[in-house]
Amino acid sequence: MRELRLERGLTLEKVAAAADITPGYLSRVEGGQRVPSLGTLVVLARVLDVSVADLAAAGERTSPIVKREDAVAYGGREASFTALSPPSSSTTIEATLVTLRGSSVPPRPTRHRGEEWLHVLSGRLELTLDGETHLLAAGDSAQFPGTVEHTLRGAPDADVLVVIA
Asked: What is the pTM of this model?
């Protein structure tokens, strides 16, 4: 992420302000000390004009196929993300597998451009949309504008397919 920011001639402060996070937090994300929420990753990707997968990938892929062993994964014990779409700055949709553990508490609600669709593959998901919390079980889905304030939390755990257009 730091490399992309520097390639674009952007300061830590400018990217942090555009993403509505602190420069210190962004510095820790760039240094691998913090794992941002999917929403924050989406916002950072938009600020840097790349896909979310590009933030974790080594380079552009030309194939539209993402094999399981080649899927870019990032995150930690509490929340992990696997980019299911190939890295590309020209993509209009991004699919991500999100694994949430109950101890994972999002720092704050997220907003981003576009539309979000999610499907709970396993476990239970606590989805908060505009202050209203919904408990979703395996097999449940939700679709909403990314501009609606939202948080995702495992309740206690969840594997969620998230598609953002």
From this structure: 0.69
